[in-house]
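S2.1 Query sequence (Ribonuclease P protein component)
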Amino acid sequence: MASPESSSPTPSGGKDMAPAVSFPVLSVLRKRADFLAAARARRQATPGFVLQARRRGVEEPATGIRVGFTCSKKVGNSVARNRAKRRLREIARAILPRQGHDGWDYVLIGRADETANRPFALMLADLEQALSRIHADRRQGQ
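Output structure tokens follow.
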């Protein structure tokens, strides 16, 4: 039989820990229809990539953040495309859980020469700025 101390919900042996911050779950877009739907929605170009974003509709589950990555052959050969996509995946992992909106789809599109070679810190800043522009209240500018 387990002692009361061993069934403690805190892993540090009964010491109180700060509550964990809950971030939305990131899942990867896989269907072509999802990519096409994002292409018809909002877009924001940055020097390192293009961000497309859309709020999912009523018929789709509106929980979690979905993200997709794409690089055309204009980006380069397969080595360059894969490097660009790895970098896009990493900036998405770093920024989208904090600044992405629950119930939205995001597609990051690599750019020739820039995505693979742009400094990583600038790529992070580009995604933060693109997200703030995408999610800005559209009525303010009208």
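The radius of gyration is 19 Å. The first strand starts at residue 26 and ends at 28.
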